[in-house]
Amino acid sequence: MNKIRKGDEVVVLTGKDRGRRGTVLRRVDDERVVVEGVNRVKKHVRPNPLKGEVGGIVEKEMPIHVSNVALFNPATQKGERIGIKTLEDGRKVRFFKSNGELVNA
């Protein structure tokens, strides 16, 4: 079970975008996620008339390692660590380590 999932609101812990909040757009693999508005780079795109693409400079989000993001806790307004526990009925759920509150997802 992944601690960070698509659609989660996260806070960036390290790097040039430290402190920024954003939503996880997708998981690239087990270790990397793409966060909305974070780790943006400028990519030079060559025009391709066969596909109808115009050339120029395009800004896009690049993946960031999951160790550099933390799930945003609305109760404390901070990024916090996540744990996984199994309930009595056998379901696995995520919870915030600081206050034990379940993650709404």
Secondary structure topology:
Blueprint: E1 9-12, E2 21-27, E3 32-35, E4 40-45, E5 56-61, E6 64-65, E7 69-73, E8 78-80, E9 82-86, E10 92-96
Antiparallel strand pairs: 1-2, 1-7, 2-3, 3-6, 4-5, 7-8, 9-10
Overall description:
The protein contains no helices and ten strands. The chain has strands at 9-12, 21-27, 32-35, 40-45, 56-61, 64-65, 69-73, 78-80, 82-86, 92-96. It has a domain at 9-77: Roll (SH3 type barrels), CATH 2.30.30. A six-stranded antiparallel sheet has the order 6-3-2-1-7-8, with no helix packed on it. By secondary structure, it is mainly beta. A hairpin with a 4-residue loop joins β2 and β3 (32-35). Helix content is 0%, strand content 45%.
> Count of DSSP helices?
0
Report the CATH C-level class of the domain at 9-77: Mainly Beta
Sequence stretches where pLDDT stays below 50 over 5 or more residues = none
Rg, alpha carbons? 17 Å
Strand content: 35-45%
Q: How many β-strands, per DSSP?
A: 10
CATH fold assignment of the domain at 9-77: SH3 type barrels
CATH architecture of the domain at 9-77: Roll
Q: Largest sheet, order of strands side by side?
A: 6-3-2-1-7-8
Succession of helices and strands: EEEEEEEEEE
Shape: elongated
> Which whole number gives the mean pLDDT?
94
Largest sheet: 6 strands, antiparallel
The N- to C-terminal Cα distance equals 13 Å
Give helix % range: under 10%
Structural class: mainly beta
